[in-house]
């Protein structure tokens, strides 16, 4: 009889302890889960609001091609692209050579409605020129700065805006990684992306509507030709450095900058002395 009572008590105590433990777990776990979700929502909302509130207003033009839709373009579209105030992919659209998957993807991304873009690396001058003219004609009064980037570029948009907020968009100035050769006052590396002020965009449009303009519509090296055209209207390259004189735009792949694998041509082309950390 005693054995039965002890066993019963043991079972009762076990059940009681189990209920207490479950109550504790429920009490602790429920608020934690809600709290975790709230924090995530707060963080996401703060990021979105912070991005929207950050001035100046930036329009991003991202040059690409259909073969990169399902790789590079997806990456840009899911990361930094939407952090611009508005962004467009600039691409030729030869649907006759695109797969059904690529065609379907074009419905999911913002593609600039620009006609007659010629395919091929040798036509980047045309692609960039048409992109800038499109930006002027459709959005000149809507944005303070226009960014030209490639589909293998990664922009930290908040940092870019913080830098541009200290600049004057009414000045005929551009920003990017500065090369000191070929063009008067130098030019920006196309691979590092570069930025035109509103006034620079206006002068670029003016240059391409000037009957005496020497601006190329196509051919040549894109970054060089765009710079030549801008120089013809008095647009100059600004200093794209932070307060510690560190470059804000980078022309090489990330791993090269990280490891310090700097090619000799960059040492010769770079306007600012290269800095390395030993």
UniProtKB/TrEMBL annotation:
Keywords: Glycosyltransferase, Membrane, Nucleotide-binding, Signal-anchor, Transferase, Transmembrane, Transmembrane helix
Mode of membrane association: Single-pass type II membrane protein
Chain segments annotated as transmembrane: 9-28
Keyword ATP-binding in annotation: no
GO MF terms, alphabetically ordered: glycoprotein-N-acetylgalactosamine 3-beta-galactosyltransferase activity; nucleotide binding
Main EC class the enzyme belongs to: transferase
PANTHER family: BETA1,3-GALACTOSYLTRANSFERASE (PTHR23033), GLYCOPROTEIN-N-ACETYLGALACTOSAMINE 3-BETA-GALACTOSYLTRANSFERASE 1-RELATED (PTHR23033:SF14)
Name of the featured protein: N-acetylgalactosaminide beta-1,3-galactosyltransferase
Key word Ligase present: no
